[in-house]
Hints:
It contains three helices and two strands; from the N terminus they run ββααα. The longest helix has about 35 residues, at about 85-120. α1 crosses α2 (about 85-120). The chain has two domains: about 5-50, no CATH class; about 65-120. It has a two-stranded antiparallel ribbon with strand order 1-2. The chain is mainly alpha-helical. Helices cover about 40% and strands about 10% of the residues.
Amino acid sequence: MDHGKFPSLGGVAAEPPGWFSWRVREGDRPQGGESHLSLVSHFIVSATLGLMPTVLPRRTVTETLDVQQWLDDAARIWPDAGGNRNVLAKRLMEVGHDQVSGAQAQLVSRRRQAIRAASGSMPGVWPPGWYATYKDEWS
């Protein structure tokens, strides 16, 4: 069954949205460099999802007791979301990303400070002219 090519899929021949679709798996390339296609099942219960083909991975999150509590807490912080759990989940991910990015920046800053503090703190460890001697040994 030929359904043509979806431009949003980068020109990769694919089934139209529905029960199954093809997805390009990056990173799993054979020696020839061709992309692998994997069949992905989509049980479409919404009229809108069928109109939006995507090769991007989708995530499903089960609302466990922990997740339920996090979303309830977020609803109290962001009442403008109107209790929309999807909007709240996205905002929690954005705030979480900001926290992770901030922690990463602090870690880099602490490492740089440690390097600066150690710089020049060990005079006499290497004898004068050691680098020239080292280079002569390996040339």
